[in-house]
Amino acid sequence: xxxxxxxxxxxxxxxxxxxxxxxxxxxxxxxxxxxxxxxxxxxxxxxxxxxxxxxxxxxxxxxxxxxxxxxxxxxxxxxxxxxxxxxxxxxxxxxxxxxxxxxxxxxxxxxxxxxxxxxxxxxxxxxxxxxxxxxxxxxxxxxxxxxxxxxxxxxxxxxxxxxxxxxxxxxxxxxxxxxxxx
Length: 182
Known about the structure:
This protein is of the alpha+beta class.
């Protein structure tokens, strides 16, 4: 199996990160790859905000937590919003903001985020998608823009976490998740 296909098949959202800060080389490589990816139709202009300050990460998640995390609920027996592991160990929070025509910008930003998640796997950096623009209230968008000093012409469209894996990947056997009825 080629390496790219293996990365795609083995990529999992991570809810429990190591508290190790991302290496600068890994962070810059992921951001550079994100910068070069674009919406083919419109060649969207992106603004990336990478937050590595744990106080700012906590402030952002605390202020918009119900909007960005509430939908995740309980995963593997852990409540991810109310005091869960995710809030304690996010080494980097990435916010992708876009400008211009918002009709397709959110979809393009989410596609870009997904591509960056795959790109991050090359550096053994894991990720978890947390929120999209449509899940945030206007007040939440304003608060994120203000807190992160996002340029005036840009709107936060996609938010997620990146970091190094704490737990090992466990893959379920195909026979335990599939029924074939003939």
